[in-house]
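Batch 3, record 17
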Amino acid sequence: MPGRRIRRLRRSELPIDTTELARYLIGKTLVRELDGARMTGRIVETEAYVIGDAAGHAFRGRTQRNEVLFWERGHAYVYFIYGVHYMLNVSSETPGIGAGVLLRALEPFEGIELMQRNRGTTALRELARGPGRLAYALRVDPSLNGVDLCAAGPLWLGAEMHPVGRIGKSTRIGLTLEAHRVLRFYERGNVFVSGSKRLNQ
DNA sequence: AGTGCGATTGACT
DNA sequence: GTCAATCGCACTA
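Prediction for the assembled complex:
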């Protein structure tokens, strides 16, 4: 299958700050390896869940569920929401500090047929537009919770494959707590970004 | 032990 | 635009 070489990001390259990391990840590549096949996409939308953020899962302290948010930056935190969907986050601070970046949308790059099969649709725009859809497209599930995204394995982060456009920001989507905070980042004008037109200006 | 509700999505009026 | 789906977590008692 498509064997285009993608340089894996080193942990030392990841900013040690949740908001900085959320911005940094726009345009980077997410690589999913599964059964000898590979799916990749450009990260085009993220949200930061920062230190002391009441909307973040780490806010009430370390538990079995949110454990990975307290790991060194660059680990996958996968959780289940609404009894229906999985969401993929990247831990984002130093060990012992709980915070993360939610990956909200990808621009599909390689392995598109496989993503289409996983999603049960051929509509390219809809494959990974939104955090739940992203997880379905790449078959992200709790077995990937805790995976080191800076190491070879089933899921990792790669350098950008294409130039990155202007980065926009807005309030985060779907929150009641801390709803005013401007912690969502996205590539402007990219049709694979979720959210309303208002939020994407 | 019981309860309320969520970092969403897809189907439907 | 509205709404149900469906489960585990965290909080109350």
